[in-house]
Every structure is written in C-alpha cells, then in structure tokens.
Amino acid sequence: MSDAAVIPPSTVVLVSGGSRGLGLAIVSGLLADGLKVAAFARTVTPELRELAVKYEGRLHIGSVDITDAAACNAFVREAEERLGPIDGLVNNAAIGQDSLHVHTSVDQIEKIVNTNLTAPLVLTRLVLRRMLAKGLKGRLVNVTSICAQRGYSGLVAYSATKGGLDSATRTIARELNGRVLANSVAPGFFASEMSAVLGQTQLDQITRRTPTGHLTDPDDVVPVIRMLLCENTNINGQVIEVDGGASI
Amino acid sequence: MAQVMKNQGKVLPDDDSADLREIGFRSLDFSELALRVEDETGDELNFDAPGLRQIATVGDVLDFLLQLQSE
After folding, report:
1. HEC assignment per residue over A122-174
2. pLDDT averaged over consecutive 10-residue blocks of chain A (248 residues)?
3. Is A55 designated active site?
4. What is the structure's pLDDT at A4?
5. Could you give the ipTM of this predicted complex?
6. Which string of b and e fits A69-78 if b means at least 16 CB within 10 Å?
7. Recorded GO terms, molecular function (chain A) (predicted)?
8. Which of A69, A88, A169, B51 has the fewest CB atoms inside 10 Å of its own CB, making it the most exposed?
9. Strand A239-242 to strand A12-16: parallel, antiparallel, or no bridges (unpaired)?
10. Chain B contact set for A133 (CB, 8 A)
11. Residues of chain B under the 70 pLDDT cut
C-alpha cells in the first residue's frame, strides 16, 4: 500500500454525547489506549468529570448541545488549542424515541431529525473542514443502530435518522477518498439507556432471538470503534453491526 | 496552491496552463486550498460541484478562487 493511501491512526478524537452510556465508555476506552479525547454532551456528568481529573491534559470536556452549531464550533477550537488538531470524530450524540409515528408530534420529529441527523452532519462538516484546511487525514465513526436496517415499532423517526447517517457514511467515504476513513457502527439494543424505552417484554423478546443470548453492552462496541479509529484495516464506508447476531 | 502540493511531495509548475490531472491536483486538493483561503480571508467559500468540474488548469484554479471571493 502506498503512503498516499494510508490514513494514519487517530490521535485526537472528538466524541459527541460522551457523558454517559456508550459515549462515556468510548471516551474512557480511548483514553485508556493513550489517545487524547475531546468530549461534549448537553450535561457533563460526574463520571466524565472524574475522567477529566484522571486524564488531566488528555481529556477536554464541555457542556454543549450538539444542535448549537456555534457552541460546537467554539468547543472544537478550544479542544484543538488544548489537545492539538482533531483527526478523529465519533458521532455518538443522539436522542431516542418511544412513540408510534402517528402519535409523534411534528415538533418531536423535527427535534429527533435535528439532533440525530442534521447536527452530526454539521459537526462532521466542521471537523472535516478543519482537517482539510490543515492538510490532515482522519477517521470518522458514526454510531448508528440496527434500527436503520430492520424495523422496530416506536422508532420511525429515530430509525430514519440512523439510516440517513449510514448513507452519509458511505458518501463521505467516497467523497473524502484518500483523506478520511468513514464507517458506521450499528449497535443492537442496550439493556439500559435508550433501550429502556422499549419495555421489558420487547427486550426479553429481542434477547431470546439473539444468537449470543444477550443484549449489546457498551463494552462490546468500544473495541470496534477503537479498531476503526486506530488500526490499519482499509475498512471504509461500511456499517458494522454489533448486536450478537440479532439482525441476521 | 504550491503549499498544498508541497505537502504531498509534489511541485507546482510555473505554467498556468498546466493540466491539473497531469500534475496530480485533485478535487480534494482544491477543497484544501479553498479552506486555506477561507482561513486567510475569514469568509466561507461555498460552491457547487459543477463549477469545480470545469476547472482543468492551474490558471483555472486561481481564476475560480478569485471569482468565488468576488461573489
């Protein structure tokens, strides 16, 4: 492989929605591997603050709403001043849904689309522009969902945004050829967090139908994200499902 | 433009009529150049792909950038 074709491992990674659940696990995992991380969320949790103390100088955190483009811009600039140029982005921030489409308000649909699709696209644009302007190569990981591939009641708008992000992943991989490796990681349902909205009966049903016999845990997903950010795999424009085989 | 090419180990020819394909200046290189100009001027230079596809020479690149800045 020629040098021109190699996208180096990320060294400074921006993680949206990094204060709890999978996002917090991603931040923690990348820090443990020696990377520098900039993480924001609407609310900075005590757990994220603890990491900032533990990894002082390698973790920059902030309270930022991903739908606030100006705040995201300011956070990225602060993070780069402190940590160096960002060469990795994990789009993880998202809001969930638990309502039949016919009973979901137009305002709520707009909020889901804005938070889960428009805002990540705008953040990606911002980070890619800064990478390109510096002549850097980088890596992008979009955290989507198996909902983008299969239908689950109560998640129409949510699924649409995750499918949209998967599509954007493929197009970015093509458009930024030679400069960026772009992939999606699509977890199955977690037993906690957003999956809690499904209800125990639905979760039990999904568990029974999962070949591995258990729902997805953040620790199942973090190694895949780390691989896409740090290893030389030549994986590009793909959606990697991490769901114990539930969707096969 | 010379800096963008230099970063890739290439040299910008003096001749404005030099063909971009022959010197290895690709569309993403133009994007990098445009973003560097943005940094200098403070103004965003947004444009559609068809305009970019008409650029064939070094001179075209410079003309297109000037045109974008005057819009």
Report:
1. HHHHHHHHHHHHCCCCEEEEEECCHHHCCCCCCCHHHHHHHHHHHHHHHHHHH
2. 74 98 97 98 98 98 98 98 98 92 95 98 98 96 95 92 98 95 94 63 82 92 98 96 91
3. no
4. 55
5. 0.79
6. eeebeebbee
7. oxidoreductase activity
8. B51
9. unpaired
10. 32, 35-36, 38-39
11. none
Residue A43's identity, in one-letter code, is T
Residue B49 identity (one-letter amino acid) = A
Q: What pLDDT score does A130 carry?
A: 96
Nearest chain B Cα distance for residue A133, angstroms: 5
CATH number 3.20.20.80 given to A9-242: no
| Whole-angstrom distance, CA of residue A241 vs CA of residue A224 | 10
Among the partner-chain residues A135, A177, A178, the one whose CB lies closest to the CB of B4 is A135
A38: Cβ contacts below 8 Å, ≥ 6 apart? A12, A13, A14, A15, A59, A60, A61, A62, A75, A76, A79, A83, A86
Domains of chain B by residue range: 2-70
pTM for the complete prediction? 0.91
Average pLDDT, whole number, for chain B? Answer: 90
Fold classified for B2-70: 1.10.1200
